[in-house]
Amino acid sequence: MIAHLSGTLLAQDTASAVVDVHGVGYEVHISSRTSNNLPPLGGSVALHIHTSVREDAITLYGFPDNAEKRLFLLLNTVSGVGPKLALAILSGLEPADLCTAISLKDMRRLTGLPGVGKKTAERLCMELVEKVRGFAPFPSTMPAASVLPISEGFAMQDAASALINLGYPQETAWQALRTVQRADPTAAAAMSVGDLLRSALRSLV
Prior knowledge:
The chain is an alpha+beta fold. The protein is 53% helix and 18% strand.
């Protein structure tokens, strides 16, 4: 099973690359973000690989690091998401940003991804919301206020998602919720999503 390729870039487009490894050219399917970051033709390239073996084909999928490969495999566990759509999703967002969008149930951001409609976005949130919270790139990129005890974290995250869906930037949404939390941490921990949302909106006026 091929897990990594290192060689010379022979050809590329937005969806694939051909990597020459000691005279053998391997076609690798990649996201458009990965394609944009490849060196010029003839340059050295190294990709982490997932090998898909089916009765009619052996297909290689390439990633710039192991974290993105893991996220690709995680996306493929979602109902209705295959390798092609998983690569399209990774083309639209950095892994850490994707984990944040899923954890916050940011439907507007998710449905803006190529090939992702409302039902697929809902499945991504429903099936992956717990899994992405433990995903390596996720904790370091989340706003500090969102790293909360589990009992209050869900309400805060849902309130943040609601603010984002209302059109507020992610950082503004979390700043408003931090304001509510700092004012009375005990009360904030007991608030419902609706109460948090109303309090946050008042702080934004």
